[in-house]
Amino acid sequence: MPITLTPAAADRVRHFVVEQGGGIGLRLGVRKTGCSGWAYTVDKAEAIGDGDQVFEQLGVKVVIDAKALALLDGTEVDFVRQGLNRNFVFRNPNVAGECGCGESFSVERTAI
Predict the structure, then answer these.
(1) How far apart are CA 7 and CA 20, in angstroms?
(2) Cβ-proximal residues to 57 (8 Å cutoff; 6+ apart), any chain
(3) Antiparallel, parallel or unpaired: β 105-107 and 95-98
(4) What pLDDT was estimated at residue 32?
(5) What is the Cα–Cα distance from 31 to 81, expressed in whole angstroms?
(6) How many domains does the chain have?
(7) What is the 8-class DSSP label of residue 1?
(8) Are 90 and 38 in contact (CB under 8 A)?
(9) Domain holding 37: CATH number?
(10) What band does 104 get if pLDDT is binned at 50, 70 and 90?
(11) Cα(51)–Cα(29) distance, integer angstroms
């Protein structure tokens, strides 16, 4: 499976979708930004588009634009709580480097 969710991430997505008033699951993507080139995007999936790939794991649908799949293939998504901070953590085997602040990442040319 190209994208995997830990039980903590799946629980957070289910809770988030209920809190936000519906939706069909989690939408993951990437956008060009930052000093390293790419940043993750996380949102509630409202619908499935023509170019989307859909995966289901632990009862949660994960929707990804097919163009972003090459950069996210093999990624494990976790949800971590550290003190007052709570956030999704991405373990992406395609990442070649990250910026110092951790907000963006780069990939090997072959992954693009």
Answers:
(1) 20
(2) 1, 3, 4, 5, 10
(3) antiparallel
(4) 86
(5) 25
(6) 1
(7) -
(8) no
(9) 2.60.300.12
(10) confident
(11) 12
Both tokens assigned to 40: 């993750």
Q: What is the pLDDT of residue 102?
A: 59
* Angle CA 83–87–90, to nearest 5: 125
| Residue type at position 57 | Q
Distance, CA of 92 to CA of 105 (rounded, Å): 10
Domain residues for the domain of 42 are 3-111
Evaluate whether 29 touches 41 at the Cβ level (below 8 Å).
yes
Look at residues 57, 35, 98 and name the one whose alpha carbon lies nearest to residue 90: 98
What residue type is 28 in one-letter code?
L
CA distance 50 to 93: 27
Sheet holding 3-5, edge to edge: 3-5, 75-82, 85-91
Other CB atoms within a 10 A radius of the CB of residue 99 amount to: 14
pLDDT at 76 over 90: yes
Q: What share of residues in the chain are helix, strand, coil (percent, to 5)?
A: 20, 50, 30
Outline where 24-93 has alpha helix (H). Answer: 66-72
Say whether 94 sits in a helix, a strand or coil.
Answer: coil
